[in-house]
Design a protein that fits this description.
The chain is of the alpha+beta class. About 40% of the residues lie in helices and about 25% in strands. Keywords: Chloroplast, Membrane, Photosynthesis, Plastid, Thylakoid, Transmembrane, Transmembrane helix. It is a multi-pass membrane protein. Seems to be required for the assembly of the photosystem I complex.
Length: about 180
């Protein structure tokens, strides 16, 4: 949902609902459940995993270790599913030249600080900063450089934009706000 008029520009920012997060969450939970099934199978002596007879794994110590790995694997898996369902990190950037205000909104984890709002005057913007690090892993982040304060990121970490697209986005925003670009 990117929208722009003469006075207002709104950019949407994606959060945790990415295909890679869905894949990692699914892999983690299914793998952890597999470890738990093997551990419980060795404890109960029942064939809970069709291709692995329970007699091949002794409960102490292998079965206990498998149960531990299964339980330990469920925590990051459920963490990712929670982040995906709450869409942590999503929000928008609003630049309003008429009011002279920039509003940045992001969704966080539930609790007191679920809604993250940052607001500052456009006169505090010194430049649009483009941080580019090539290699493995590559990093491309668009930031607002404020006078006397730390930079505020405008794009999410791991956003899959090419170098040209990132430069174009920085140039459009700098043109709209009438500020310079740094880091090219």
């Amino acid at each position: 949902m990117d929208w722009q008029s003469e006075w207002v520009r709104v950019e949407s920012v994606g959060g945790a609902r990415r295909i890679s997060n869905f894949c990692w969450a699914l892999i983690l939970v299914l793998g952890a459940l597999g470890f738990l099934l093997v551990g419980f199978s060795s404890y109960s002596g029942r064939d809970l995993v069709p291709f692995l007879p329970p007699q091949q794994i002794v409960f102490i110590p292998q079965g206990i270790v498998m149960c531990f790995y299964g339980i330990a694997g469920l925590f990051p898996g459920f963490y990712l599913w929670c982040a995906i369902s709450w869409d942590v990190g999503s929000g928008y950037n609003q630049f309003d030249k008429r009011e002279g205000i920039v509003r940045i909104f992001r969704w966080g984890f539930p609790g007191e600080n679920r809604r993250i709002r940052i607001q500052f005057p456009t006169s505090d913007i010194q430049a649009i900063r483009l941080e580019i690090r090539e290699g493995i892993p590559s990093r491309r982040v668009l930031r607002i450089k404020l006078r006397g304060q730390q930079d505020i990121p405008l794009t999410r970490t791991g956003e899959d934009l090419t170098l040209g697209e990132m430069e174009e986005k920085a140039a459009e925003l700098a043109r709209f706000l009438c500020v310079s670009i740094e880091g090219l």
